[in-house]
Each structure stands twice: as C-alpha cells, then as structure tokens.
Design goal:
Helices cover 8% and strands 53% of the residues. The protein is mainly beta.
Length: 377
C-alpha cells in the first residue's frame, strides 16, 4: 500500500512538472586567442604595443542560466542570470557583481509580449548593433559600438522593460532605469529612495525583420542626478540602421546622433572608443554630461558568405564630433574579419582593424590584429 501511494505521488509530481512546462538552461561561451595591438599618438607622445593572449574577443566569456515556467493561460515566468569572467585566469570580469552581464526576472505572453525587471543591456546594444553590424558586439574596436558608443554593450541596473510581441515583423520596446549604476560625472546610484538623486535613463526601440530586410531605430535619454552640479542635464541619442540580405552579400548601414554628452561604453575585448571633451580630458567614465557637445555616428558594413561554414566580415565606421568640441577630429575605423564554423557551437575567427584619429585625437592611430577560437555550450 505504501509503495502504491509513493508511486502515485511520484507520477503526480512528474505530471505536474510536465504540465507546468518548466525548464532551466545552463549555457556559456569560452573564447580565447592571440592578439597584437598598438596605439600611436604623436600629439600626446604616447606609443604602446602589446602581444599576447586575448580573451572574449568575438564574444565575452560567460556562463549563465535562463529559465521559463508556465503559469497557465499562455503566461510564463522567465528569468536570466549571467556572469562574465576572464578565460586567461578565471577571474570575474566585475569584482563588484556576481551576475554582471544580466540579472532579471519577468513575465511573458505570446499575445501581449514580455515585461522584465533587473539589470540588462539597452535597446541600442540589443537591437541596432545586434542587427546591423557583422561584428555584432564583439572584436573590440572593430564593432560599431566604437562609433555608436551608446550601443557599445551598455548595461544598466534597475530597468523596467516592456517589449511587444513580434507583429508582422515589427517589435517595439520601452525601458526605464530608476538608477542606472553607470559611472558618470553626473552621479551614479546614490543609494537613495529619491529617484532624482540617481542617474536615470530611458531606452526605446523599434525593429523590423521580414525576409531579406531588417531595420532598427533606437533612442536613449539619461538624466543626471539632482545632487550633482549637472542637475537638469541629460545626454540624448537616436540611431537608425538597416540591412538587406541578397544571399551572396548582406549589406548594412547606420546613422546616429548623440547630443549634450558622450557615452564611452565597453572596451569589448580590445581598445575602446572615448570621445574627448577637450585635449586634456580623455573621458574615462561610462557616461559624460557635457551640454552643447556631441557627435554623429556612421557605419557601412557587409557580410560575404564564402560557403556554408565561413564568412568574410567588412565595415567602415566614422565618429564625427560636433564643431563645439575643440581640437577633436573625426575618427575613422576600417575593419576586416573572417569566421569558420567547425560545428554549430565551435568556430575559428581572424580579424584586423585600424582606427585613424583614434579617440578623436588628431593623427592618433590604433591597430589590432588577432586570431581566436570560440566554443558555445
């Protein structure tokens, strides 16, 4: 009798688990290789070269978990937590956070979309860079975030995000960060319940994908904390991009404007772009409030399939400071990459890029060449 009851209880448990359609997935990326890089700046007298191991170049090294649980009536609970680390020594890429890359929980329904709360990337990083740039968010100075710096893998804390379902190829998203956690001259999270004492942000986007056509438009606005000397100021940016896949070549173009400040973004495994407010300020913070200053961003890109397992990646990006930034020059980047898929999960890559007027410094030049291997699980 006891065995019968135990068997019945186990069967009921399995049936309940199946009906709930719960799943948790452990995933990750291991990416490592060799890289040569140099930065030469005759104006400032700086010359720096390096050769050695390079980690997280195509994709940042990470492990994470994501899951979904059916709540009935088409509703699901969803979550994601993701940690970044350095492959070369096993150290966390962010000593202050356990899950520095992503940490959110939400609700999802195929009819009305999904809502999420936590730490996540902004929509320019997700939808514009991910859709237009053949280098996506990887390869350091080669990716379009080097010029579209609001898309240089910007992660924000305390975000409430809503995304619509995909309807006839269209999807819209809107997010608000109550306290971004971004380092800036306009304050970070103040630890206060008063929202105005924190750096806050809006991120919004619209994307389209149908057949060979793809397009995205994004907008961000970040407000300085009231407790700083930049109270009342905000950094604003908008971006447009599109792609056309003709099978033998996939073309991409993009344009953006940033005003009243600068994003510096993430270095992404290589030297990263920093727009200078003046010759003596390299702007090392994550976000800089600077009224009346800004820049325009451009990209022309192509992905050329060689065969079913390999591709050539090409792009030219440009970052043009506004006339109000003294002594800053237009930054131009010329980028070439190649990927070869051993399997769906493991690929080899090679890349080379050169940036002229690097970091908008006149005659400064940054060169990067490397190879690597990436495994996804």
């Amino acid at each position: 009798m006891k065995k019968t009851l135990l068997a019945a209880a186990l069967l009921a448990g399995f049936a309940g688990a199946a009906s709930a359609q719960s799943s948790v997935t452990l995933y990750g990326v291991l990416d490592g290789g060799l890289r040569y890089s140099s930065v030469v700046s005759p104006v400032s007298g700086v010359t720096a070269t390096s050769f050695g191991g390079a980690y997280g170049v195509q994709s940042g090294n990470r492990f994470g978990m994501k899951g979904v649980e059916s709540l009935g009536n088409g509703n699901n609970a969803v979550f994601q937590i993701e940690n970044g680390f350095t492959l070369g020594n096993g150290a966390s890429s962010d000593s202050g956070r356990i899950f520095n890359r992503a940490s959110w929980v939400g609700l999802q329904n195929n009819a009305w979309g999904d809502v999420r709360l936590g730490r996540m990337t902004n929509l320019t990083s997700d939808w514009l860079v991910g859709g237009v740039d053949p280098f996506a968010a990887g390869f350091g100075q080669l990716n379009m975030g080097h010029a579209f710096t609001s898309g240089n893998t910007v992660r924000m804390d305390n975000v409430l995000m809503y995304r619509t379902p995909v309807m006839n190829g269209f999807q819209a998203g809107l997010g608000y960060s109550f306290a971004t956690g971004l380092t800036s001259n306009g304050g970070t999270t103040a630890g206060s319940f008063a929202s105005s004492e924190n750096t806050r942000a809006i991120t919004a986007g619209l994307k389209y994908a149908n057949g060979p056509l793809g397009a995205a438009a994004t907008y961000e606005k970040v407000y300085a904390a009231d407790g700083t000397s930049y109270a009342g100021q905000s950094v604003n940016n908008w971006n447009l991009g599109g792609t056309y896949d003709a099978k033998v070549i996939k073309l991409g173009v993009g344009y953006g404007q940033t005003r009243d400040g600068y994003w510096t973004g993430s270095s992404g495994g290589g030297t990263g772009a920093v727009l200078r407010a003046n010759p003596s300020n390299s702007g090392t913070d994550g976000l800089i409030f600077a009224a009346g200053k800004g820049y325009n961003s451009y990209i022309v890109a192509a992905t050329i399939p060689v065969n079913a397992t390999s591709r050539v990646l090409l792009s030219v990006t440009k970052l043009t400071p506004t006339a109000s930034i003294a002594d800053a020059k237009s930054q131009m980047s010329y980028n070439l990459g190649y990927t070869y898929d051993f399997t769906k999960r493991t690929n080899l890559y090679a890349y080379a890029g050169q940036t002229q007027n690097y970091a908008t410094v006149d005659t400064a030049k940054a060169t990067i060449v490397g190879v690597g291997i990436r495994h996804q699980f």
